[in-house]
Specification:
- The protein is an alpha+beta fold.
- About 25% of the residues lie in helices and about 20% in strands.
- The strands form 4 sheets. Strands 5-4-8-9-13-12-7-6 form an 8-stranded mixed sheet.
- Strand 8 and strand 9 form a beta hairpin.
Length: about 375
């Protein structure tokens, strides 16, 4: 009995045969793949596991290829290639610049009547949906702007109309552009892409007041005009009713009357993260830049920058000493529930918007911060 307790067999004359240890590779194979002697349940388990593993590997490869495509241009930056018409183009970090050389006389002659910015002739020749160019100095926002028949096509098509997830900067399809014609509010849409291109640079305005002070003006030139715009509002907006208040800023391309203008300005100023000191009045041409936002942790958020056109004979300079953070910002309910940043009343200077006080009084919208 003592022998049994020590793990020995009763027969000391017979030695126990040691089981041969499998190599790691063989153990891995027998553990993953069906083998002779496996039960039906074990075979099924291994097959299900192998199928799941294959699907996971395929998914990871697809994701990796997608992000490598976004990170790497189709051709090395600065590489000259030839387009289908025999003309030269240059691939420049997710943006195709179509005119290495000055536009040809024929391209200039084919511009729409009233065009003054002949440097864009090659772009218009390459794509007649071209309407202008947006630039924010000090950033890589320096892109052609197109206009489609709807607000869907250029979300995932490049300047040449080819499928591309990053899309193209485009303006709302309802706007009209001409020698003496601009929308009341030109809305430009662009993806907030990784690797700092498209409208990703707008993230800098979100919580960086110094960036706003350094870059308070946006350039948006059309074929017919050269325009500068002074930023007066930067805000985050919700697009899902389940999160609370929804402000549909995209419907304000044209203002039916002054009341609709004041309604829009009131909303964007209430939501703005900053006081800028930039004045606004009915009749000003506005520029709105819109992109996706992921800073709040909520889905389907938008980061919106609103500016107004520099008026005739007005200096494009902005007194950046007047740019300050607001202490009362209008957010949506889900945001205030999580972050506790509740509305404290309208604290921005309504005198900066000519006629705003009268609009608020006439519509019972005056808001006294002392009530909060």
């Amino acid at each position: 009995m003592a022998e049994m307790d020590m793990g020995l067999t009763p027969n000391n004359n017979k030695k126990k045969r040691k089981k041969k240890k499998q190599s790691f590779g063989k153990s891995l194979v027998t553990g993953l793949f069906p083998c002779k002697g496996d039960s039906g349940a074990e075979i099924a388990r291994k097959l299900i596991f192998l199928g799941s593993l294959i699907l996971m590997i395929v998914a990871l490869v697809i994701i990796a290829v997608h992000f490598i495509t976004l990170l790497k241009p189709e051709a090395p930056i600065g590489t000259t290639v030839v387009d289908g018409n025999g003309g030269q183009v240059i691939q420049d970090d997710q943006q195709v610049v179509v005119n290495l050389q000055a536009p040809t006389k024929e391209q200039i002659e084919n511009l729409p009547e009233g065009s003054i910015n002949e440097e864009y002739a090659a772009y218009y020749d390459a794509n007649p949906d071209f309407v202008g160019w947006v630039t924010i100095n000090g950033t890589n926002v320096d892109y052609p702007v197109v206009q489609g028949d709807d607000n869907e096509f250029y979300l995932h098509h490049n300047f040449d109309g080819e499928d591309e997830f990053a899309g193209t900067i485009f303006t709302d399809y309802e706007g009209k552009f001409g020698p003496d014609q601009m929308p009341n509010n030109t809305i430009l849409y662009g993806h907030n892409m990784l690797y700092r291109y498209k409208f990703a640079a707008l993230n800098n305005y979100n919580n960086n007041i110094e960036f706003l002070k350094e870059t308070p003006v946006i350039d948006f030139n059309t074929l017919y005009q050269k325009n500068k715009y002074k930023i007066f509002s930067v805000f985050i907006v919700n697009t899902d009713e389940e999160h609370g208040d929804v402000f549909d800023y995209t419907k304000y391309v044209y203002f039916k009357n002054s009341d609709e203008f004041y309604e829009y300005i009131m909303e964007v100023m209430d939501r703005s993260k900053y006081n800028t000191g930039v004045d606004v009045e009915y009749g000003d041409e506005l520029l709105t830049l819109s992109t996706c936002d992921g800073s709040t942790g909520f889905e389907n958020m938008r980061l919106v920058i609103v500016a107004r056109k520099v008026r005739e004979n007005e200096s494009p300079d902005v007194d950046t000493s007047k740019i300050t953070r607001k202490d009362s910002i209008k957010y949506f309910k889900a945001y205030t529930d999580v972050f506790g940043s509740k509305w404290k009343g309208r604290t921005w200077d309504i005198s900066l918007v000519k006629g705003m006080k009268e609009y608020l009084e006439d519509n019972g919208l005056m808001d006294d911060p002392s009530n909060y």
